[in-house]
From TrEMBL, chain A:
Residues annotated as domain ABC transporter: 4-229
Tagged with keyword Transcription: no
Keywords, comma-separated and alphabetical: ATP-binding, Nucleotide-binding
Superkingdom as given in the UniProt entry: Bacteria
Keyword ATP-binding: yes
PANTHER family: ABC TRANSPORTER, ATP-BINDING PROTEIN (PTHR43158:SF5), SKFA PEPTIDE EXPORT ATP-BINDING PROTEIN SKFE (PTHR43158)
Residue intervals passing through the bilayer: none
Gene3D superfamilies assigned to the protein according to its UniProt record, in alphabetical order: P-loop containing nucleotide triphosphate hydrolases (3.40.50.300)
Protein source organism: Sporosarcina limicola
Annotated CDD domains: ABC_DR_subfamily_A
Protein name as annotated: ABC-2 type transport system ATP-binding protein
Gene Ontology terms, MF aspect: ATP binding; ATP hydrolysis activity
TrEMBL record, chain B:
Gene3D superfamilies for the chain: Winged helix-like DNA-binding domain superfamily/Winged helix DNA-binding domain
Residue spans crossing the bilayer: none
Molecular function in Gene Ontology: DNA binding; DNA-binding transcription factor activity
Name of the protein in question: DNA-binding transcriptional regulator YhcF (GntR family)
Provenance organism: Sporosarcina limicola
Length: 302, 127
């Protein structure tokens, strides 16, 4: 079953379009990573999916309904981000009690165990929590709600390394026990890549890649060997990135080699090394502006 | 996270791990293998990715499926793996040997007689 469907969706703020004629579908039960550079529209996409804001044009369907002003979508989804707000009149333990009334699938036991594990004080108000603690509390709400569509927008902001690890582990264990559709965004793909089934890669307002994370990992390959030898094999291919270390060079190319070509590569001492999803992502989203080094090189020659 | 051989993709690492369990007899013929969900939890990875590791071994007929019961080690799974690993390891070593010989200007006849001489020396040593 399809849970989210974007059909030719555009979202503009004044004259700047963030999402540019976007098409994709998210199937039920898949844990998808929403990945992209800063300001690329990840949060916008998530807010539209949860019905918080409307698209400028195009058709959005969540659980077969337009999510904006939809009670069905509202009751079956949760969006966890750092702007989640709770009433100042309620203590943290009151919030858990209210969540129990509000969310149909709320797992009160799990919520309480996580609450105790992360050492929250029941009487504290949400607004008095530190940045990292706020994120942790919001993440507990997101996990324990067991909503059929659960969306986490940069849930680990401010969390320390140990808590981030615990959160991802908790999310995975809970997802295995209670499979549901999850969208998860993070700037740190390397932290979440083993957790994901699919990846939705946004670049320049469009979908640059959408599919199993293993397909992204196998899309590119790194050739490492003597500069001349590597050059002979890569001159007619699209190069996604390269680095030279003395007489040796590393070149990222598409993983399209015939069996014969692979034998020749190994004969010439060229190694084919798999690429992490993170390396592939950086290679696919580095624009025509080049890298940060080019900024300084240009200044030097001006 | 899980990092046995970072130069391999995670689902291939999972398949390798199960292969080793079969070769060292931790997993016996017709014994049940971890489900994709158990593997996912064990290695902290997505269940779909763990499932891909199992699929690799199912396709190679190292494992077989029993409907509703799970995935099991094929009766001849260990033999198949041994044969495969022998073939792969030996071929790799031979390729290396040939590369080194070419680098040192050792021609085929020289190399073959060196192999024979080494084999004879070993035989004598064993006697």
């Amino acid at each position: 079953m399809t849970v989210i469907k974007f059909n030719n969706v555009t979202k503009s703020y004044r004259t700047h379009s963030v999402l540019d004629h976007m098409d994709f579908t998210i199937e039920e039960g898949v844990l998808t990573g929403v990945i992209g550079r800063n300001g690329v529209g990840k949060s916008t996409l998530m807010k539209i999916s949860a019905g918080y804001i409307q698209a400028t044009s195009g058709e959005v369907q969540v659980f077969s309904e337009n999510p904006f002003n939809s009670l069905k979508v509202s009751a079956n989804s949760i969006l966890v981000d750092d702007t989640m707000s709770f009433s100042d009149k309620l203590s943290l333990s009151d919030i858990l009690k209210e969540a129990n009334r509000f969310y149909l699938n709320w797992d009160a036991q799990l919520a309480q165990r996580l609450f105790d594990y992360f050492s929250f004080h029941p009487d504290v108000r949400h607004k008095h929590l530190s940045k990292g603690k706020k994120s942790t509390f919001n993440a507990i709400i997101g996990i324990a709600s067991h909503c059929p569509l659960t969306i986490f927008d940069e849930p680990t902001t401010g969390m320390d390394t140990a808590v981030r690890k615990d959160f991802y582990r908790a999310l995975l264990k809970d997802y295995i026990a209670n499979p549901r559709t999850i969208l998860l965004s993070s700037h740190h793909l390397e932290e979440i890549e083993d957790l994901l089934e699919d990846i939705l890669l946004i670049h320049d307002g469009k979908i640059r890649f959408h599919g199993p994370i293993t397909d992204l990992q196998e899309m590119l390959v790194k050739l490492v060997g003597k500069k001349v030898n590597v050059l002979a094999h890569t001159s007619k291919r699209t190069i996604f990135g390269s680095q030279v270390n003395g007489a040796y060079s590393e070149v990222l190319v598409e993983n399209k080699f015939t069996a014969d070509e692979k034998i020749r590569l190994s004969e010439e001492g060229i190694k084919m090394i798999p690429v992490s999803a993170n390396d592939a992502y950086v290679a696919l989203t580095t624009g025509a502006k080049g890298g940060i080094d080019d900024v300084f090189n240009r200044t030097a020659t001006d | 996270m899980f990092d046995m051989d970072a130069s391999k993709l995670i689902y291939i690492q999972i398949a390798d791990w199960i292969e080793t369990e079969i070769i060292d007899r931790t997993l016996k013929p017709d014994e049940k293998v971890h489900s994709q969900y158990q593997l996912a939890e064990l290695f902290n990875i997505n269940p779909a990715t763990a499932g891909k590791g199992l699929t690799l071994l199912l396709e190679a007929k190292i494992l077989y499926k029993r409907r509703g019961l799970g995935t099991f080690v094929a009766p001849d799974g260990r033999e198949k793996l041994l044969a495969k690993r022998k073939e792969e390891t030996l071929r790799k070593l031979i390729t290396k040997l040939l590369d080194e010989a070419r680098l040192l200007d050792v021609d085929d006849n020289q190399l073959l007689s060196m192999i024979e001489a080494e084999r004879d020396r070993k035989k004598e040593g064993l006697l």
